[in-house]
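Bench notes, afternoon.
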Amino acid sequence: NVQMGFLQAVSTVSAGIEVKKNVAQGAYAPTAVQNTQAVPLQIMPLYNQTEGYGAYVVPAVSIIILQQTLLIATAMLISTWYEQRRHSTSIRGWLGRIAAMSILSFTVGCFYYGWTFELHHYPRGQNMLGSLLFLMIFCPTVATLGCVFGLWFRLRERSMQILIFSSLPMFFMSGYPWPANQLPEILQILRWLIPTTPAINTSVQLNQMGASLSQVAIGFYALFGLWLFYFILLLFMRKRTQSKQSTFKCP
């Protein structure tokens, strides 16, 4: 708003000087006024109609909040079960745990899309079905990563200590507040291992901009690929912890 106000003031003063100069050279006054701006400039924001900071940042940050809440909670739960030696289960059991945690996070996501954005008058609801489909893929991806971290950290306090400080780096590495091509090359590669990298842009395009599923297909493919990668890691960690338990039980 300050920049636009400054631009309007400078343009008005400059146009006044130009009109006086043309009139002094013999031009007709109304014609001189029209010639100062042959094509009138009219700025109309498409997706952030209030041009507010909240409408810009909250829809993206909400995905970070959704991810970190589910990630920390899942990791702490699995770590607690690991401490109590209750973490071992079959592949079907792990899928059930992932589904249970995903349902809770899916409900919170619906609260964001269905009520929070509406309450604060943020751009929303352009492609609600696409947003719900996004949550159905995003939540299991994060929950699976949380299970991997839980088996890796093994202590519930460690999950909070490590993951709570990762929120801000994840947000900047997503490419939303900072151009991704300006990041170091190693970070441009590593950032695709984080769910929020495809998730933030996919969510904003679906819910705020009304993009179709075909336009954000890359984001869906990336999330599905991450889920598959995390699940393979989970199976590896499961096998590793089971082998350690067998070693501890041996006399």
